[in-house]
Amino acid sequence: MDPLEDGFLDRYQRDKQGDLSDLNKLPISNPLHPLRLGSIPSQISEPSRIPNSTFLRTFMARSTLLAIASPIVSQTCHLANLPKETFCTILGHLPPSSASSLALTCKGFLAALGNDPFEALSRDRYETYVLLWFIAKDLSHQSVCHSCNRLHNNETALRCYRDGKNGCGESQKRHKALKCRLDTRLDWDYKELLDEDFSPRIFNMAMKHSLHNPDCEKFLNALSGECTAKGDWHAWIKESQTDCRILRGSFIHRTQMVWITPTNNRTSFGLAMEQCAHTRVCYMNGIIYTRSYGLSREDDDADSQSLLFDWDSPETTLNLLKCRRCSTQCRLTMKPLPVEGSGMAIYITRWVDLGSGTLNEKWQRYFQRGRFEFEYQQQPDSLFLSSVFEHDGGFRSKIEDQRYASLFHSPVPEN
Fold first, then answer.
1. pTM for this predicted structure
2. Could you tell me which of 409, 277, 283 has the C-alpha nearest to residue 347?
3. CB 325 within 8 A of CB 193
4. How many CB atoms lie within 10 A of CB 99?
5. Locate the F-box domain: which residues (predicted)?
6. Angle at 195 (CA atoms; ends 191, 198), nearest 5 degrees
């Protein structure tokens, strides 16, 4: 997840940060806050001479950056004896993030350079993020929050996210999770395309954790779950269950959902269910069909399918649908309820490869609307994403044998 990838700069606008004299008054979005973490053990002691600067005396004395300044570089390094003007000339050719990194490699550098590289860093939110990203690359348990420009400890962030997801009252942990927007349900634009509890921040942390430790069960469990929605959809009931796996550096997300109507719903009201930004599954008056968007009109029409529901068939399954604009694959199954004249159930299973993080092309294409110049190239090993999951996790059994058994099983006649 390299922050220098194409398109990244558009997300982090450079802005002024205001007065630095009182850090307690800085807004949560200020990039100076993320560096004041106390969770990383100090590796070196505080340098004997801190430059005479309000910024450094207030900020750097407790800074995580100072705490992790490399002890490998000798503190009597000959470069530290170079004139300050020479250092400034070198740093003048570097972006603020790189200049700050160089200043923090040695106590002598830090003492000689003073406040200059950090003042430039404090005025640039994007450069602050890049510096954090450099640091996080070497710290397996730390990840950068794209939203509030902080370094988050993965375990702490995961715990805060779970508190928010489980609705643990107005606890302090829940308040912190919402304040730093770890719980991104507040600003999630495409809830229906994954699920309302999915957090891109935790997703990025899971992918980073997988690089150092293959055991990602805690993260995968946090990003999975169940949802029951008995809303006013003209007698339709919706239930869903999500699961995820990490396979060869890619995050595979599966959503199983079912729409149930207890009555023969032949009304003017149908269903429209988005599977990605380019594929929609629709049902109306006994006909289920798919619509595709994103390529030419001819290609979109060619990808569309339709099927008349057979009320006399035990169940009907459509061929596996593969979006030609992103990695989405889905399968539809329609099943009539056994009681004559009753309704039906529509099962939809969706698999999507979200790549290695939110900066990955697979993630971005999944949510990208509009026209594409070229179609998505399916990789040979991703032809059937369903093979990543061993079974359905008991989803259909929960629906048909437990929660809605009275709808799916004919009553046993009394003797």
1. 0.69
2. 283
3. no
4. 24
5. 80-117
6. 100
Amino acid identity at 64: T
**Phi and psi, residue 412, nearest 5°:** -75, 125
Residues facing residue 329 across a β-bridge: 322, 351
From residue 125, alpha-carbon distances to 18, 22, 59, 269 in Å are: 12, 18, 16, 48
Domain boundaries, the chain: 9-139, 140-223, 226-408
Per-residue model confidence as pLDDT tens digits over 263-303 = 765 554 678 888 888 888 888 877 888 887 766 677 666 66
User: What are the tens digits of pLDDT across the range 288-343?
Assistant: 888 877 666 776 666 677 777 777 788 888 888 888 888 899 988 888 888 766 78
Angle at alpha carbon of residue 309, lines to 303 and 314, rounded to 5°: 120
Beta bridge partners of residue 308, listed in sequence order: 287
Q: Give the integer Cα–Cα distance in Å for 410 and 280.
A: 33
In one-letter notation, the amino acid at residue 152 is H
